[in-house]
Design brief:
By secondary structure, the protein is α/β, with parallel strands linked by helices. It has helices spanning 72-77, 87-90, 152-168, 177-180, 198-204; strands spanning 28-29, 32-33, 37-38, 44-45, 55-61, 101-103, 109-111, 118-119, 126-127, 130-131, 137-143, 173-176. The protein has a single domain (36-204), classed as Lysozyme-like (3-Layer(aba) Sandwich). It is built from 5 helices and 12 strands. A hairpin with a 5-residue loop joins β6 (101-103) and β7 (109-111).
Amino acid sequence: MRPEPGERPAASAPNQMPPEQTQAGTPWKQGWYAGARHRVSPNFGARPAGAVLDLVLLHSISLPPGVYGGDSVERLFTNTLDWDTHPYFQTIRGLEVSAHFLIRRDGDLLQFVSCDDRAWHAGQSSFQGRDNCNDYSIGIELEGLEGQNFEPAQYAALHALLTALLENYPLRFLAGHSDVAPGRKIDPGSGFEWHHLSDLALQWQLSLPQG
């Protein structure tokens, strides 16, 4: 995935609280999930009034592309990436982006934005006739490269995260970035195996991509 152009934050987004305020033992606190490590991103805004949070969007990302491990994605989402440490970073220099969650190759889960707030992950997008998917979606990044496989630990972490999200939010749809920006995005790519989520889809009447 090539990161999306940044957006400017809304005037206020009260749920983007410091991670240390999330109470231990509480699954959710103002949109923060206790099962994730918290790294607060400044790249977020308030959701529009009346937005129905019913969509989860899956992405894939690696920085530089195809390189796993390290903290480059984390630094990108927190605006601390040193653009001069790799030639590829010059091509995305100055971008301000984020996602709600990142699942590393070993299943480690990080959260950057409260799920009650609007992260900057989808860019120009549309789902079932509704534009601006950032307004009504939760963005989950999987460390990986389009067309390559993902790790069992990532599917396990994703399954656990989705279960927690479904228990707390009125989610109805699960889609890939390619489904909301066809022709522009191809992630999470052909290597992602959607069948790993079929039991959740059946249990929660969650719609998965067709094909």
